[in-house]
Design a protein that fits this description.
The protein has helices at about 30-40, 45-50, 55-70, 85-115, 130-145, 155-165, 235-240, 250-260, 270-275, 305-325, and strands spanning about 75, 80-85, 120-125, 150-155, 170-175, 185-190, 195-200, 220-225, 245-250, 265-270, 280-285, 295-300. By secondary structure, it is of the alpha/beta class.
């Protein structure tokens, strides 16, 4: 049997005897483990065999525990085995509670490490919620039902603020968010092209090939903000004109309603293209006018993502392949 090192016995530096200064004694969890084994078996010999130690090593650990508790014996030494004293019977439930608490901590940490437990707090911008996030969330919950998931929707800049403040574990963001991304750890998910949503019967629906944004410089636009900066309409600014925002509509389904009614046109990202209503036509935009925007899962640089967040990033990448692989929208219709 192994001879257990005598790491805690004696009265060296850091060893507190109960009652010396009124403070709680500094008890080793190893002592408590040995104490519980001896209590369970009623024998130093059997406890030593169970632990794989020598009997003398077990005896020293119990002596060290008794010393730390003021010298009160925890066991009566009998001709055959041992029996708890009143002090031992008093200590037993507390030692058991400590052991159970530690076992519970180990179970929770194991679940956290394996991403089968814990929590995931994430946010996403609106068009990512049209297809990418629902696909990923459904797959993640099916694989890891024990993880508590909460989700927020918002603009990229706000999501990054929430991420920095520690309110989110990750955020699905895009390069049109108007916020600097260099200070974050960015996990690339996809690059998506843009479409122009026009009402059925619009003159450009008869065109073949992609449209140029300049051709819509005089159009009324439906946008989530009156200012194009930091929105999809950044593409119009890069194309050399400032779009006239006639209607500010935040919710994506409502934007489609305005377009279908002939009240304006709107830019649509590929992620939202599959959910466009049938009385709206999507026209692809020339890449030169509207280069593909990048979509990322962002975490805070220098802050280790939780196992659940790392697992979710992997699922988001799978979702990106699945969603973009099913087609980038209805196109002309």
């Amino acid at each position: 049997m192994a001879e257990m090192p005598d790491l805690h016995a004696g009265n060296g530096p850091g060893h507190d005897r109960a009652g010396d200064d009124g403070a709680a004694p500094d008890l080793s969890t190893l002592w408590l483990r040995v104490f519980l084994e001896v209590t369970r078996h009623g024998s130093f010999t059997v406890a030593a065999r169970t632990l794989g130690w020598t009997q003398s090593a077990v005896s020293r650990q119990i002596s060290a525990l008794e010393s730390a508790l003021g010298g009160t014996p925890l066991f009566d030494r009998l001709p055959r085995g041992v029996r708890l004293t009143e002090a031992g019977r008093t200590l037993a439930p507390h030692a058991q509670a400590v052991a159970e608490s530690l076992h519970g901590a180990v179970r929770e940490l194991t679940a956290l490490r394996e991403a089968t437990g814990g929590r995931l707090r994430f946010g996403a911008f609106a068009s990512a919620d049209a297809a990418l996030v629902p696909w990923a969330l459904a797959a993640f919950r099916a694989r890891r039902p024990g993880v508590r998931v909460t989700r927020e929707e918002g603009l990229t800049a706000r999501l990054l603020d929430r991420l920095t403040a520690g309110h989110l574990d990750l955020a699905v963001v895009s390069t049109t968010g108007g916020a600097p991304l260099e200070t974050y750890a960015l996990h690339h998910l996809l690059d998506e092209s843009l479409y122009v949503a026009v009402p059925a019967g619009h003159p450009l629906t008869d065109r073949t090939g992609p449209v140029r944004l300049r051709e819509l410089a005089d159009a009324d636009w439906v946008s989530g903000s009156s200012r194009p900066e930091g929105t999809l309409l950044d593409a119009a600014l890069r194309a050399g004109f400032r779009p006239r925002v006639a209607h500010v509509v935040a919710e994506w389904t409502a934007k489609q309603g305005y377009v279908a009614a002939g009240l304006g046109v709107a830019l649509v990202p590929a992620l939202a293209a599959a959910s466009v209503r049938p009385d709206v036509t999507l026209l692809p935009v020339r890449d030169k006018d509207a280069p593909a925007r990048a979509v990322y899962a962002a975490t805070v640089r220098g802050r280790s993502p939780s196992p659940a967040a790392e697992a979710f990033i992997g699922v988001l990448r799978e979702a990106a392949v699945a969603v973009m692989g099913t087609g980038r929208g209805r196109g002309r219709g």
